[in-house]
Amino acid sequence: MADFMASLRRGYCLVPQPFNTKVVTRVSLEPGDVTCIVFWTRDPRPLMAFVPELDALGYPFYVQMTLTGYPRFVEPRAPRIDEARDALCALSDELGPERVIWRYDPIFLAKGPGLNLDAEWHCANFCGIAESVGDRVRTVVISLLDEYRCTKSRMARAGLTDIVFGSEREHVPELPPGPFDPTQGGPFFPLLTRLAACASSHGLSLKSCAEPWDLSAIGISRGACVDAELISHIAGKDLRSEKDKGQRPYCGCAESVDVGTYGKCPAGCIYCYAKR
After folding, report:
1. More confidently predicted of 236 and 238
2. pLDDT number for residue 169
3. Interior/surface letters 141-174, b for 16+ CB within 10 angstroms, e for the rest
């Protein structure tokens, strides 16, 4: 975070390509060139120290915070669940619930050492977090874990078996036309129905991230991490942006520039697509 703040003060940052770090792009961070900044994090505590300066510099921003509560061997160096929850609440107290998005993703099913990461586990885990964050957030975003290169083998080495990814369409088939029937959609859809009911009972808007299905019938709307509507409200501007063509087909994000760098996250999550 300190490096990013130095870039803001300088007015630009240098961003290497993920798979060819010799190719570097200069991105302007001058206030007139930045409509809004969207942060993704598991631990917002380093960010909180710079909130006054961000506000003083005049950059509108909001934060996507991942809080999943998976066992320690799955997310070995992520903040512990109580630490992460307290940090989310503190951040919301600073920014307000609209500018803090809780991410419960990625979701996968598996058997692990001494426990089952099944639908029952997710329901209990999700609802426990939803109750503990209370009214500190208004939106929770979910997505199913897709299988990336080396992800499955890394998870298997950690002791997980019977792993079900969202990208395995034999487990997550296309939903039939007509009224939504969760029993017809593989093992994830009854779970998503229950998560939607839990979110609603806690006053949370539940949104999906880059998933192909229309789940509005069970209370899950299509989300966008780089949300043009939210940005327009936070920045006080009418952001009219096309869908970002560089993202996945079902991604709803507005056009943006990613200035993050692969490999810097210390959490070490075994499912991470950016882990090298």
Report:
1. 236
2. 65
3. bbbbbbbeeebeebbeebebeebbbbeeeeebee
Q: Give whole-number Cα distances, 225 to 63, 103, 142, 182, 185, in Å.
A: 10, 10, 11, 25, 25
pTM assigned to the model: 0.93
Q: What percent of the chain has pLDDT over 70?
A: 93
Listed by start position, the domains of the chain span 2-235
Token pair of 159, please?
């002791």
Q: What is the mean pLDDT of residues 172-188?
A: 71
